[in-house]
Design a protein that fits this description.
By secondary structure, this protein is mainly alpha-helical. Helix content is 45%, strand content 8%. The protein has helices at 2-6, 13-24, 32-45, 69-78, 105-119, 126-136, 141-172, 179-189, 195-198, 207-227, 241-255, 335-340, and strands at 264-270, 292-298, 308-313, 323-329, 345-346. The protein has a three-stranded mixed beta sheet with strand order 4-3-5. Helix 2 packs antiparallel against helix 3, helix 7 crosses helix 10 and helix 7 packs antiparallel against helix 11. The longest helix is centred in the middle third of the chain and has 32 residues, at 141-172.
Length: 350
């Protein structure tokens, strides 16, 4: 094998790159874009330039010229314990965690806990919620749905308030640091969502996005219960968006005498766009859809095959857990055009 690598004219770099990018490491990579990145690294790094005195992966990251294993170990130990983001081609601000100079993990998380507690919404008062629902019509399908969503949001708020308060006490040494509190401390320091919160809420890429979404979700519920039903709903802000669509169908069915729920289906239409919105946009990965009017009709007839059956997901993750429903979109091109491109609607791209 070594003779094959070296050949009669030196190192066969194309063979080395193929073995690394496609076989030894690439064979374990299943995502096409990850493999593309791996092969790109192989193309950039593995060549005769590796042996030039000026070669380095990044400033300070050279290939050491050592004679013994111990010397290699010493060189490895001399490398920084935390790599600068620029080593990986990232912006230098990519490693900002919000901690001040010299702050410990505990101090950073303690300050973050105080900040989150100060912004956490107040608890819902059960008798006030009940009174508002009775005034709005507590037997109405949409209001029953709202009550269920508020109950789940209150559970998230309560768990968050209790765990943040306990975490502060544990950091102070007043109470024992339990397993759940240790998990919360570690995850909060790494800007991730603690497991005890995630189990009762929703997924998100970072703790900051998750907490912002909590405030936005709660704002929709508190405004709805205090001021009445909104004109526009933020569907990704619901714990159970499928339940929202079912409640809408039930309400429409009950409003029309003689309609049966089994024959009432979801329909939709994209509302009118402005002239600026229908001009050809630059190439982008995501583009915002205008307001989508979803309503129920009393029909079991099949949909027009010229419409594109577009799936709707809560997050940019194609699983049954994130799937909500399908909507039917008018299209100038054949629906196959969009099917081949995997076009879908995402309630949240974070």
């Amino acid at each position: 094998m070594m003779n094959f690598y070296l050949g009669s004219r030196g190192v066969s770099w194309s063979t080395v790159r193929y073995m690394i990018g496609e076989v030894q490491y690439g064979g374990r990579v299943t995502d096409d874009f990850d493999k593309r990145l791996l092969n790109c690294f192989a193309r950039v790094w593995f060549s005769e330039k590796m042996f030039e005195p000026s070669f380095c992966f990044y400033t300070g990251y050279k290939i050491p010229l050592c004679k013994t294993l111990d010397q290699y170990f010493e060189y490895i130990q001399s490398l920084p314990p935390l790599d600068n983001p620029e080593v990986f081609g990232l912006h230098p601000n990519a490693d900002i965690t919000g901690g001040g100079v010299g702050e410990t993990r505990e101090a950073i998380v303690y300050r973050l806990s105080e900040d989150m507690l100060s912004k956490l919404p107040p608890d819902y008062v059960p008798h006030e919620v009940k009174a508002r629902l009775i005034k709005m019509g507590h037997l109405n399908s949409m209001n029953i749905f709202l009550k269920q969503e508020i109950d789940r949001m209150q559970k998230v708020i309560s768990i968050l308030r209790n765990s943040l308060s306990d975490l502060k006490l544990a950091i102070e040494g007043t109470i024992i640091m339990s397993e759940n509190l240790r998990d919360a401390l570690d995850n909060m320091y790494d800007a991730r969502i603690p497991q005890i919160w995630k189990r009762v809420s929703w997924d998100s890429s970072t703790l900051g996005f998750w907490f912002t979404e909590l405030l936005e979700r709660n704002a929709q519920f508190s405004t709805w219960i205090a001021e009445g039903r909104p004109n526009v709903f933020w569907m990704t802000g619901f714990f159970n968006p499928q339940g929202f669509l079912t409640a809408m169908r039930q309400e429409v069915t009950r409003a029309h005498k003689g309609w049966a729920l089994d024959s009432v289906t979801i329909h939709n239409e994209v509302l009118r766009q402005t002239k600026e919105e229908i001009t050809s946009p630059p190439a982008v990965l995501f583009t915002q859809l205008p307001v989508l009017h979803i309503f129920a009709i009393n029909s079991t007839a099949p949909k027009d095959p010229k419409l594109y059956v577009c799936p709707v997901y809560k997050k940019p993750r194609r699983t049954d857990l994130t799937f909500i429903t399908v909507v039917y979109l008018r299209t100038v091109l054949s629906p196959d055009h969009w099917i081949l491109r995997g076009v879908a609607l995402l309630c949240d791209i974070k």
